Amino acid sequence: MSESGFFIVLIAMVGGAIRVSTPFMFVALGETLTEKSGRINLGLEGNLVLGAMVAYAGSYQTGSPWLGVLFAGLSGLVLGAMHGWICKLPKVNDIAVGIAFMSFGTGLAFFFGKPYIQPTAPRLEAIPLGGWSSNPSIAQALQVNPLFFVGIALAVFMWWALANTRWGLIVRMTGDSAASARAMGVSIDLVRLMATAAGGFLAGVGGAFLSLYYPGSWNEGLSSGQGLMAVALVIFARWDPIRCVWAALLFGAAGAIGPALQSIGISQGYYFFNAAPYILTLFIMIASARSKSAARDVPGELSLAK
After folding, report:
1. May I ask the CATH class of domain 3-123+137-305?
2. Is the pLDDT of residue 15 over 90?
3. Could you give the percent of the chain with pLDDT greater than 70?
4. Which pTM was predicted?
5. Is 12 or 82 the better-scoring residue by pLDDT?
């Protein structure tokens, strides 16, 4: 590979990492907030798929992709609130409810989304950061969607809020010790309901990115399990919003290897490279299971900490 070819692959991987990582980032941030309150929501895959469908339908019907993003977030919020309300009932298992809502959200999206598979909806516009280059491959690779920057700003804000605000202290205390939070007069159910609903909202926004920007269409195979992989990222990131961004970019880079190599004509092993994010997820789960750092940082009220 020539020096110029290597540079093009590198830029393509950076651009691909940004594109592929954005939905991972939103789902991981949503699950981080949920788990910080002491609840696990494995149903965010359903929020992601339903958000993708609602965003595409909303954009098609209103002509505004940003309204589609808002509708996607609201659909995720509703699913998250339903999950949070059911989980506060006695003898209800968070994980079982999450799996049920994953199927429920996906089923709703498939049922109501059939009329929107063929029509073309207005898509989110990207910010061109590659205008300095005359190479069309580099210019295309550095088309960055504003939602990526929104995700980074949200991660920084969440990191700061969890560490420095009264609300952040309440969320962390609820997740670490429900008995202590209850003794301080905190409504455990309300905090977890709000955290789960907010986490669902973010997952819905992540779904909007999939249908309105990359890949940029609505179909029933759109997610490919990204919601579940993003939940695995939370453990890898040790429930830290900033680390979630880096972990999402790592997954994005893994997913961008195949297309980056294809951009310079290397197609051998393309399907193997497409499987890289799934292989990475497997290794991350194995490493996290043996990680003392993850065991130390896990919120005490999560079932995986008991």
Report:
1. mainly alpha
2. no
3. 84
4. 0.91
5. 82
Average confidence score pLDDT of the chain: 87
Instruction: Report which of 79, 73, 87 is spatially closest to residue 107, judged by C-alpha positions.
Output: 79
Indicate the helix (H) or strand (E) that contains 244.
helix 241-262
Residue boundaries of the structural domains of the chain: 3-123+137-305
How does DSSP classify residue 144? E
Q: What is the DSSP string of 155-211?
A: HHHHHHHHHHSHHHHHHHHHHH-HHHHHHTT--HHHHHHHHHHHHHHHHHHHHHHHH
Using the structure block, give the residue that is written with the tokens 């399990």. Answer: 225
Q: What end-to-end distance do the CA atoms of the chain give, in Å?
A: 51
User: What is the b/e burial string over 241-252, where b = at least 16 CB atoms within 10 angstroms of the residue's CB?
Assistant: bebbbbbbbbbb
CA distance 48 to 26: 10
What pLDDT is recorded for position 137?
Answer: 66
Average pLDDT value for residue range 164-188: 94
Query: Are the CB atoms for 121 and 52 separated by under 8 Å?
Result: no
